[in-house]
């Protein structure tokens, strides 16, 4: 590792952000261990863990390389990999490994069970010994391969002098396998290879389901930062120009931003006027005109003329990068939410260890001998295996998520359903969320000739309003008029001649809060208004949420006029012109008052709020960053999936609690039998498997929950 930077020199130093995937994180204790461990390293300003995506965001001095930080995380006790170095190798690697292990365990379980049937049926002598040896030949490599996720996790925990759920699981599997090998080698009557492999299969099934839920549709936060331009043309004092990567830009440099180019840094317009698509930061549908002296942000797209921009902030100091940091910080706060399965399993490991140890010690004192005492202890470990508990949550969540997917809502993280079930207030962005985010021109008042002129003009412009006019008129079958001398003037519009008549599409004189353009034909001016239509079922969706006890309101970055108009139509409260940090403060205020808010938004400006809310949903038309920050994504033009998600989430938690109740009742009856020596490891494995099947069967009732 490079020489560390003295902590006192961090202030004022140039800091950068790095992100790492840490697949070995298992619980809330891992979060604290990683964050505290990294915070103690010289040169690290802050470390934030996002448990749902199993990633760590580190803000550090640029002298520390990603490899330095990977080594530091490994010294803390966790394998890590830089997201920047290999962004595709991280999120689903664990899922694939678990699925492979599950397939191997399933194959081994089926074959060993076939051999065991003959032994159960009374086969003895040489036949029994042969079947035990064949079972051993199958079971040992299966246990070695499929048990790795548990063995590695248990070994890591023990190396760092702590325990977790995988420790008793590993002990039970290894003891059962070791005892079975001993029985096979000495010609004993009983072997428990089938129980050990069956145990692994059901545990892996629950863990694989949970991993699939965690990684479903998960995308990296790099999707947000990718919206910034990758490079920029920089003008020197002598007029020469050169192309620089975005990370090499510095304040005071002069960028030349061509038409259609995304800004690579924040800055101030120094020369030229143009129109910017800045919706990702402001949430506004309409493009914004800018002129010398106006502040512009990285990621905005230049729709009009080339402009010169004096850089004020670049790389990790831009407004877009700040939103990314806000999303990371807010996401960490939400990822500290302790899932119901984690809460239920906190006492599992010490309780099972104690029971198995007491069983062994008690039977040894009673004179049963080490062999019989060990068999009883193994039976206790297996029969109390958390298979039913491990399946209780992911099985219900996967079935519920499948039911919601059929209705157009994709849930990305299993814990999201738990949080959706708890929300008590819903906050909606306006543009693209309550509305469709599509600017639709109102053209019914145009004559056929006026419409044909408007189409001919609109087709010649890249402006979003012109594109909307052209799309609508072409769909109506209007033929464009024959125009001549077409030209586009910056800040004015599209001008041309129709015969001897001057025609134009220009900015209206007095649009007020309304989005509009003006069609001029000679001395006649016809205003064309644009509307962003509400989703047709917005009112019904809000009413459905109200029936679930969830009130709704609007928080938007749009102007006051359009926001209040929508709020009045829907009969809900609203706040307008809110910047990303203002939305974040509003959500934190609600949470401090005891509320559990649901945020529904689509723009990059909603990203921090989506990450900070107790639960969040984004439409399918949302930016990549918003979909990454949200817990769920709804598809199509209807808003009802949002209300449906809350209702199904609450039904899911009822099923989850039923599953846990059954798992507890099962253990209440099964554990005393195991302690009494009335259960062999094989019977314990069968009982454990049956309890798992009951939990899965109960969870399947959710398949019709979204109907």
UniProtKB/TrEMBL annotation:
Pfam families for this protein: E1-E2_ATPase, HMA, Hydrolase
Superkingdom to which the source organism belongs: Bacteria
Membrane topology reported for the UniProt record: Multi-pass membrane protein
Domain called HMA: residue spans: 16-81
Subcellular location: Cell membrane
Alphabetically ordered keywords of this record: ATP-binding, Cell membrane, Ion transport, Magnesium, Membrane, Metal-binding, Nucleotide-binding, Phosphoprotein, Translocase, Transmembrane, Transmembrane helix, Transport
InterPro entries xref list: ATPase_P-typ_cyto_dom_N, ATPase_P-typ_P_site, ATPase_P-typ_TM_dom_sf, ATPase_P-typ_transduc_dom_A_sf, ATPase_P-type_domA, HAD-like_sf, HAD_sf, Heavy-metal-associated_CS
Regions that span the bilayer: 97-118, 130-147, 167-185, 191-209, 347-368, 374-400, 660-676, 682-700
Gene3D superfamilies xref list: 3.30.70.100, Calcium-transporting ATPase, cytoplasmic domain N (3.40.1110.10), Calcium-transporting ATPase, cytoplasmic transduction domain A (2.70.150.10), HAD superfamily/HAD-like (3.40.50.1000)
Family to which the UniProt record says this protein belongs: Belongs to the cation transport ATPase (P-type) (TC 3.A.3) family. Type IB subfamily.
Name by which UniProt lists this protein: Cadmium-translocating P-type ATPase
Organism: Qipengyuania pacifica
